[in-house]
Amino acid sequence: MKHVTWAILFLTPVAFALQSSGGGAKDGQRVFRLNGGDVSYVVGVNDEGELQTVYWGKRLPESQEFQAPKQRQGLASFDMPVNTTPQEFTGWGGGLYLEPDLKITFPDGNRDLVLKYASHTATADQLDVVMKDISREVYVKVQYHMDSATGLIRRSAEISNRTGAPFTIEQVASGTYNLPRGADYQLHYVTGRWAAEWNLQQQPIHGGKTVLESRRGTTGAQNNPWVMIDRTGDHDQDHGDVWFAALGWSGSWQIAVEQDPTKGTRITGGPNAFDSSYLLKSGETFQTPYFYGGFSSNGTGGASRLLHRFEVDSLLPHAPHPKLRPVLYNSWEATAFKVDEAGQMALAEKAASIGIERFVMDDGWFGQRNDDHAGLGDWNVNPKKFPHGLKPLIDKVHSLKMDFGLWVEPEMVNLDSDLYRKHPDWVLNFTGRPRTEGRNQLVLNLARPDVHDYVLGFLDKLLNENDIAFLKWDYNRNWSEPGWSAVPVEQQKNVYVDFIRNYYDILQKLRQKHPAVEIESCSGGGGRVDLGVMQFTDEVWTSDNTDAYDRLFLQEGFSYAYTPAVMMAWVTDSPTWVNQRSLSLEYRFLSSMQGSLGIGANLNKWTPEDFAAAQKMIAAYKTVRQTVQQGDLYRLMSPREGEQAATESVSRDGKQVAVFAYLHSSTQMYPYPRLYLRGLDENAMYELHPVAGKVNEGTPVKATGAYWMHHGVDLALRGDFQAAMFTLERQ
Ligand code: DGJ
Hints:
Bound molecules: (2R,3S,4R,5S)-2-(hydroxymethyl)piperidine-3,4,5-triol
């Protein structure tokens, strides 16, 4: 019976296959190969018309040919071949027990979907394979784009409803990446929460499924939509095969890492299906978010260097030449909601004196915003705090040779606001049910066209009326009661997708209308960082946790997926509010200088010595900022592994190297471990320049790359919470 069923299914796809040309195919076989960087990605149409993974890994010679894949046998009567064959995009139907890429409920009650090859188009870096259900007019264009420099693949799928009636997408992924059978895979991912984002986790991949997700309506900090898989054994930061995947979606999301019955590993990523569905009318298409995948044979460090390069060269708004992040000052930790014209002007003067390039006024400038109970939604300047509007402050900031940035939280509303009093129906809610508040605020339903227009309208007005160079776009709670009663019941769960689409639309339109304005994505810290929002924002707020020692951990976790070019890192006051830990100003600077430097301290409390030290460190940072932000990052010692931590950044042109080293505490008189640098030219001469802290006596000033990498360098670091920094300049 099983045999008969599959034989019948076979007829339709072959008919399609015969109609189209066989780009990349041998003897009429359909095998498609994408090459980029040091990576080859090969898929093929199997004998059953399914789109099957053939190879993903180190680039293979052009001369290497591939046979079209064959559908695998099932296992006894319990696992049909759909569970044992590594498909690229699988409909839920025909006895699939693994995570599907697409699950549909049709109006007649049918929920079976079996996708087979229909046609394709292929160029050197783009492959589109159209799949069709075996009987219904449901088409899925499985899309691949290969980045020629890094070998990163960008997957997505476009679902077309040509059935003549609406249907409901119950679950949809951007696609599935398959790794061949292996018992030694290890999964790496990050977990966290507010003020404790970016904790690296590691676990073996074995039977079962690990689901990383957000059900929060937005990216969230609980997990971040990025995974990395390496193999146990001979591997480290610079060696070994590593695969990684990251989702470009800022709404509820899911990445499932699952072992199939043959111990193959599948990575399926897309919007989260929990409480969500999408009513797709006839004639409409649904475009999934991008799901990126990459491979490196240069260890976990090599994997993150590839991702960083891709983000800087291909993803960020001004890629391939994103602007370097200016050194900014932010008022939040200094003044909280107590902002006013005189106070901000005084801070601006002090900020300018140490070399700050951008002055950002945070929360508190609008409506009745004196604390977090009121004002959100009323985006008019508070006349008591700024009697003449923002202009005098902005003019003052400009006169001090800085540009001006402003905090906003556009998607939120306080109950105590004119906006909520006027439009209580604009928030996410279920009619007649409680509206759970977080930080005394509710979430505006951005999926509604009127809310979309309102948010775009006030932001556009704000930017038209004021000379603002930068918006810090905050988002300080996650969803509850995500009802959308203004549309028919069967469409209400579209809210998870339509909200995010409108969010992206607003960001995109603002950027078009105000191309010089830069935007930071913040969500009470690092709660909205992903490859989706990074297409529209120039930087992200890493965490509200600004304890410079904690930051070493957070920044390391962050760096696995995201480039330091977007990683905002402020120097704040000591002892930090986070842990009551006391750290020297120099240590705090050296921690923040690993990323995009900002100052968030209360400058009103600084001594003349603090100002002098800050001036010196900011000047030093400016000399290495391009290297740190856009260079190649090497993690020399992890704070997770002991008392020490160190990173090295090598500029793209190889001319400059910046090394940061940290010591938690000395014990038993042991010296600081020798640092062995990486990524240098063995034969070139490099001159060492200490910036902070000391190298050991006897360290040469000039030496070859080979010396710095193989002999290494000793630092004279002793004590508790010590840090050092030096540069190497190629001669
Ligand atoms: C949360 C952000 O992460 C902080 O930096 C600050 O902007 C506050 N919100 C303001 O309410």
